[in-house]
């Protein structure tokens, strides 16, 4: 971010015809947007885009989710049909949605070819038993994510959001967070949440899977790319690539729930400074999201109890960013309302 | 609210192609909107209107505010010019703004006549020393508020917001909350907040003024209309009338900060059941707002640290309501995605 633009925005904020500090988070957000855009006041966010990275997860066959793996493909079809939760929200808030099958365990016949054009593999390894990906697949997925971000930016994206779809995905995402925070098998319960709604027995299984996975991987988790190979998945690695490319191009990112934030944490490990280009849309009930956000120094804008995934929390937060832009752009300066007596040659 | 429509909405929510409970507050809001609209799914909120009730307060001359009373008139001019904080937010979120001078201590020369056409008086009495209004003025202000709500509704308002402007107004608003909760002079510190930003000495003066006012009024505060006369102001009484007329006409209300919520509490005392037509937009740092919200059983949608007033918190929350509407209207039902084998005469 550009500290001169952020500084100019902070100065402009202080000069607005509002009591000092009265805009709260909206004032801070406006300053952040000026910094990431390199412009004060910030530009309106007219072109906002969400990419949903879809993939399946080997752990879903091991009782960690409330839903069967076949739901992943069904939901990709629902996104393409424009009928999922995030489609409704995106239509309401003028956000473009792209869904990308990076690792769905289904051929998705009949869908537009572009949906699966960048597919890395079908499914990912069950992380407590084997690596999620090969090292080559991790690089391929990172590159897929980078390319899609670059394409969206080339088409005019001013703000990028990341979304997820994949039954079982909160398990590898929690593992990425554990790895990112240096937590081991003994700490698995700290990062395990109920996802789409597993019961107590499901949560116990999930915690055990996470503990086994972290124990299996051991010191390899100290390397972020190796973490993606061992504990991640194709969709999560692609999301990391997407976040890296967006922030390296200077395009701000609005994060969503656990998957999005776990990938931001991983991206920050790969390229320190990434988080400065990110803001957090919505607090997830998943404990790992809160741990990762705290580590990144991010505080979500919304806390509406949503746990839908799909990028829905980020899309719901887009109008908050637009509020911040409008305040810094359109509110009168105190100096306009109460000009001092004119001085200098132009004065009367 | 219509329990049949709310029930139908709850059933629809349960049938959406999302995990149970995954929409959090947005799901609950959609059900509430169906109930208040008497329609499932709820209608889009295309016509949303904010009325800002402006007035001055005798207590502002007694050191309870960080700003001088002349700011009230200056801000009314800023609203009319479309350059205040809430104007920027309203433009961003397609909310119409009307500002009404009910009790500004200024003739507001040069502004359109309609701004002050319903003026009740200039200023209001300093509530620790005298009544804010006469009984007749209270009735007049209530009627002004009712009329403006009826006018907005006749013009098509689907959702009404209330906003405030008036230096010193958090003092009478806190007094309304104290009265509504049965708190007396000894509890003044519980409802006193820093408003636009008074220092410790200012907060002490404000607490003392509140204690004196509550002690002066005594048992009269058990009657809600008498409370407005003794402890309120023209703008607050008008806001109460506005909320009563809106909710009695079955038009839902999105509440703002302390002034809005203090008036909703007073309206609930006058007409029990009013709060069922209201939802809360934003949590204020003012302690009296939280006390009143808890009493009304309302939980704000947003908590962004704003303390601007003007209706700004409510306007910022409008997109959250629109999110809720879009989800209940536009997300596929599970039964559409996974239809059972057709049966009956139309089946193949």
UniProtKB/TrEMBL annotation, chains A, B:
The residues annotated as the active site are 310
Physiological role: Catalyzes the synthesis of alpha-ribazole-5'-phosphate from nicotinate mononucleotide (NAMN) and 5,6-dimethylbenzimidazole (DMB).
Tell me its family: Belongs to the CobT family.
Q: What is this protein called?
A: Nicotinate-nucleotide--dimethylbenzimidazole phosphoribosyltransferase
